[in-house]
From TrEMBL:
InterPro entries: ABC_transptr_periplasmic_BD (IPR002491), Bact_iron-sidero_bind (IPR051313). This is Iron-siderophore ABC transporter substrate-binding protein. PANTHER family: IRON III DICITRATE-BINDING PERIPLASMIC PROTEIN, SIDEROPHORE-BINDING LIPOPROTEIN YFIY-RELATED. It comes from the Bacteria. The keyword Magnesium does not apply. Residues 1-27 form the signal peptide.
Length: 336
C-alpha cells in the first residue's frame, strides 16, 4: 500500500511556517535578501479600517494616536499584558506574543492587512511576515516620529500624523521657552536618565528619553560622552559618573529587589555629593512614559511629567494632548 503525501493545503499552519522558514533560511544562506526600508516598504491600503498588527511598543502607541485599533499587539514590557494608558482603547485586542518572539501562527490567523515590525527585533522572521501581509519596517524603535509617519503613510493618515507632530513641535517650543526663562543662568541643564535594576544601575545617553531631552534643550553629563547607548554601573564607587544638574530616576515599583538597590545607592555618601541631590533636583519618573511606551502618546506624557516636575504651566499650545481635546485616543486624563 502506497501512502500519499498530505496535500499542502491540509498541513497544520504551524508546520507550514516551519517548512517555509527552513526554505527561507537556506535561501538567505546563499543570497542576500532585500529588506524593505521604511521609505520603500510603505503601501497605502484602500480601507478605512485596516487590520493592523503591531510588533513593537512604539508602533502600538502610534497606531492608537492615529485612531487605529490594531487587531493584534505584542505584550508590553511592564504593566503586563498591556500598558495602563493603552488598556481602554485596546480592551478587546488580541495578544500575539512577545516583542522579541511574536506568535507567527496567531498573526496569520488574524488575517492582517498590515504588519508593523522593526528590523532590530524581527529581521530573522521578516520573510514569514512579508508572506502573511504587507509589512512595514521601522529602523530605530525609539524614533517615535518615524514610527508615526511609517504607519500614517501605510494607512493613508498623513494629515493626522502631521497635525500630531505640529502640535508636538508647539509643545516643545513652549517648554523650551518657559524652562529657559525659569532657569535663567542655570540653563541649559545636564540631565541624567538613570534606571535602577536589582544588581546594577544604567545611565542612558540615547534612546527614547535621551532623544526627547536633547530636543528640549537639555545636555548630557560629561561621563556619557561617546558612550553609545549609555553606561552600566555595578558598584557604588561609580556614583560620581551620575553627576548632573538634574537626575530622572526610572523605577519599577513592583520589584522589591530594585527598590532595595535604589535605597542602597541613594543612602551612600557619594550620592549625597551629586549636584542634583544637593539642589533637590532628583525626580522619580514613570518608566513607561520615559522609555517603554515609545510612541507619540508616551512622548507627550513624558513632556507632561517635565512640566509638572519643573512647576511650569503650559500655554494653550503647550498643554497636553489629552487636555486640549478632553481625551487622547479614548484615554481620559486626570491632569486637566
Amino acid at each position: 500500500m502506497t501512502t500519499r503525501p498530505l496535500p499542502i493545503t491540509k498541513l497544520p499552519l504551524a508546520l507550514l511556517f516551519l517548512m517555509l522558514f527552513s526554505t527561507v533560511t537556506l535561501a538567505t544562506n546563499s543570497t542576500e535578501r532585500h529588506r524593505p526600508q521604511p521609505q520603500d516598504a510603505q503601501r497605502t491600503l484602500d480601507t478605512a479600517s485596516p487590520r493592523v498588527v503591531t510588533l513593537y511598543q512604539g508602533a502600538t502607541d502610534s497606531a492608537v494616536a492615529l485612531g487605529i485599533t490594531p487587531v493584534g499587539v505584542v505584550e508590553s514590557w511592564l504593566e503586563k499584558p498591556m500598558y495602563h494608558y493603552l488598556r481602554a482603547p485596546l480592551a478587546d485586542v488580541e495578544q500575539v506574543g512577545l516583542e522579541t518572539q511574536p506568535n507567527l501562527e496567531k498573526i496569520a490567523w488574524l488575517d492582517p492587512d498590515l504588519i508593523v515590525a522593526t528590523r532590530f527585533r524581527h529581521q530573522r522572521v521578516m520573510p514569514l511576515l512579508e508572506k502573511t501581509a504587507a509589512t512595514v519596517v521601522a529602523g530605530k524603535v525609539y524614533d517615535f516620529k518615524a514610527s508615526l509617519m511609517l504607519i500614517a503613510e501605510a494607512t493613508d493618515r498623513r494629515p493626522t500624523a502631521r497635525a500630531l507632530l505640529e502640535r508636538w513641535d508647539r509643545r516643545v517650543a513652549d517648554f523650551r521657552d518657559k524652562i529657559r526663562h525659569a532657569s535663567g543662568s542655570h540653563w541649559p541643564q545636564k540631565a541624567a536618565v538613570v534606571r535602577f535594576k536589582s544588581d546594577h544601575v544604567r545611565i542612558y545617553s540615547s534612546g527614547f528619553a535621551g532623544s526627547i531631552l536633547d530636543e528640549l534643550g537639555f545636555e548630557q553629563p560629561s561621563s556619557l560622552d561617546d558612550q553609545g547607548w549609555g553606561i552600566k554601573l555595578t558598584s557604588e564607587e561609580n556614583i560620581p559618573a551620575i553627576n548632573a544638574d538634574v537626575i530622572f530616576v526610572l523605577l519599577e515599583p513592583d520589584d522589591p529587589a530594585i527598590r532595595q538597590n535604589y535605597q542602597r545607592w541613594t543612602s551612600h555618601p557619594l550620592w549625597q555629593q551629586l549636584d542634583a541631590v544637593a539642589n533637590g533636583r532628583v525626580f522619580e519618573v514613570d518608566a513607561v512614559n520615559w522609555i517603554m511606551g515609545g510612541g507619540i502618546l508616551a512622548a507627550n506624557a513624558m513632556l507632561d511629567d517635565l512640566y509638572a516636575h519643573y512647576g511650569l504651566e503650559p500655554s494653550a499650545d503647550g498643554e497636553s494632548m489629552a487636555c486640549a481635546s478632553g481625551s487622547t485616543a479614548g484615554m481620559e486624563s486626570d491632569k486637566c
